[in-house]
Amino acid sequence: MADKYRVAIIGCGGIANAHARGYKALENRVEIVAIADPVQEALQEFGERYGIERRYTDAREMLDKEKPDIVSVCTWHKLHAPMTIAACARKPKAVLCEKPMATNMMECDEMMIAAQRNNVKLAIGHQRRFNASFNEAKRLIAQGAIGKPRLVFCSGTNQGLLNDATHSIDFIRYILGDPRALWVMGNIQRKSDRHERSIRIEECAEAVMYFENGTVAILIQELLWPSTLKGMGAIFLGSDGIMEVDERMIRLLDSKTAGWQILEPKGEDPFIAQARELIDWIEGKVEHRGKAENGRAAVEIVMAIYESARMHECVKLQPIGSPLDPSCRLVHTRLSPLDLMIDSGHLPVERPGRYDVRAFLLRGEEMRG
Ligand SMILES: NC(=O)c1ccc[n+]([C@@H]2O[C@H](COP(=O)([O-])OP(=O)(O)OC[C@H]3O[C@@H](n4cnc5c(N)ncnc54)[C@H](O)[C@@H]3O)[C@@H](O)[C@H]2O)c1
Question: Which domain holds residue 313?
Answer without folding.
Answer: 132-267+291-363
